Amino acid sequence: MEWYVPSLHSWPNLPFDKVYMSKVFSFTPDFEYHVNAYQVVRGGSGYCIDLVEGKEVYQADRDTLLPTEIEHIYPDYSIYPNLTRSTAYGFLSRGCPRGCEFCHVAAKEGKCSVKVANLREFWGGQDNICLCDPNILACRDGEDLLGQLTESRAVVDFNQGIDVRLTTPERIEMLNRMRIKRIHLAWDNPDQDLTEDFKRFSECYNRKSESGKVVYVLTNFGSTIEQDLYRIYTLRDLHFDPYVMIYDKENADQTHKDMQRWVNGREIWRTVRRFEDYIT
């Protein structure tokens, strides 16, 4: 198995039997070169999620689904030359019950968070673990999985975030016993006031990390600027670092872009307290 490189594998070289191609987003351009192969298999949410009667449906061909024994095999990290050898990447759980309209997870993985692996399936003693689970706390085996991460003594990066609505004091204490590089949370729905949830987390969570407590704030998806600023100011008051995400940034207006630049530019964020002052 190897990466397909057009300059090395194009005609007149012998064709591959099969080349796998994937992408995450449907708007990402397809591979622009001819693929020198007898068969090209396209998969991933960028190819397999379609709108059916206004709802996202995951419609993967059987060829794109990996056999169980392959899903659970230890990854061959050597084929990813840009990844550091000191980090393991993988999923302990899949699926999320939230079903957010802007997110593909429910359509692709289901609305029930389920355990899909034990840590040793993709971690072999590396110093760092990058965990890609969409909602590990919603999994009925979540506490067991958190325990595995704690026992590893590796530094954990929850790169998809922790669901603050499910962070009981007991679960936060489990996070406190873990070595954590960065903690991500989210406040995406402006119609849900999560102030008390974030307050509870701020009071109970005592791990210090190099990047603080980062909270994704989705904007330009059914929210007003006033609703965006309410979430942003509330998070700052509770000692979180909001991180503004713009839905459909290409077509967003200048106000949303200015707000993102103000919040995500940390030097500006820490010196200019009010958005009104930043844009004047």
Please provide a written account of the structure:
The protein folds into two domains: 1-65, no CATH class; 68-279, pyruvate-formate lyase- activating enzyme (Alpha-Beta Horseshoe), CATH 3.80.30. It has 280 residues and is an alpha/beta fold. It has helices at 6-9, 45-48, 68-71, 105-109, 142-152, 169-176, 195-204, 225-237, 254-264, 266-271, 275-279, and strands spanning 16-22, 37-43, 49-52, 55-58, 87-90, 93-94, 114-115, 128-131, 155-158, 180-186, 213-219, 241-246. The strands form four sheets. The chain has a six-stranded parallel sheet with strand order 5-8-9-10-11-12. A two-stranded parallel ribbon has the order 1-2. A two-stranded antiparallel sheet has the order 3-4. The relative contact order is 0.07.
Short key terms for the protein model shown above:
single chain, 280 residues, alpha/beta, pyruvate-formate lyase- activating enzyme, 29% helix
Précis, in short:
The protein has 280 residues and is α/β, with parallel strands linked by helices.
Topology:
Layout: H1 6-9, E1 16-22, E2 37-43, H2 45-48, E3 49-52, E4 55-58, H3 68-71, E5 87-90, E6 93-94, H4 105-109, E7 114-115, E8 128-131, H5 142-152, E9 155-158, H6 169-176, E10 180-186, H7 195-204, E11 213-219, H8 225-237, E12 241-246, H9 254-264, H10 266-271, H11 275-279
Parallel strand pairs: 1-2, 5-8, 8-9, 9-10, 10-11, 11-12
Antiparallel strand pairs: 3-4, 6-7
